[in-house]
Design goal:
- The chain is an alpha/beta fold.
- The chain has one domain (4-141): SpoIIaa-like domains (Rossmann fold, 3-Layer(aba) Sandwich).
- It is built from four helices and six strands, in the order βββαβαβαβα.
- Strand 1 and strand 2 form a beta hairpin.
- Helix 1 (40-56) packs parallel to helix 2 (74-90) and helix 2 (74-90) crosses helix 3 (104-123).
Length: 144
């Protein structure tokens, strides 16, 4: 399976906060590999850019790789539900997979976000399957 690095968002003096975007054409996926602790503004910019890539490249599956992501603020979670979730639907999202971080608080934050997104999809009358994975390989094989 071909995985193409599409772009990188790197912030901070050490460029150690942000995300890498990878496109996996075979399964119409955008793999967003998060790292560090992006500010809320950086987080929002990454999400919005990812949604544009989803739309532009006609991708259907978003893999949120949060294994290297530190905490997400509560207000960023709320913004994701209120703003990004409806945009994801509008931009063609059909499946959402999460690779969870090992650190408990970060994992809890990501799970809370995912569960709230699932509830929002139901309110929007959209059935978007959501699944958690331990490895990228599992997430890539979900399409089968």
């Amino acid at each position: 399976m071909e995985i193409q690095l599409y772009k990188t968002h790197a912030y901070g003096r050490e460029k150690n906060n942000g995300a890498h975007f990878y496109i996996i054409p075979e399964i119409k996926a955008l793999w967003v590999e998060w790292f560090g602790y992006p500010t809320e503004e950086e987080y929002k910019a990454i999400i919005l850019d990812g949604l544009e890539v989803l739309k532009e490249k006609k991708l259907e599956y978003w893999i949120a790789d949060t294994r290297k992501l530190e905490l997400i603020s509560e207000s960023a979670n709320e913004w994701t539900i209120a703003v990004a979730t409806p945009l994801a639907v509008k931009n063609g999202l059909l499946k959402l997979g999460f690779l969870l971080p090992e650190e408990y608080l970060a994992q809890f934050s990501v799970e809370e976000l995912a569960n709230n997104a699932a509830k929002e999809y139901q309110k929007l009358n959209v059935n978007i399957p959501l699944k958690y994975f331990s490895t990228l390989e599992e997430a890539l094989n979900w399409h089968k």
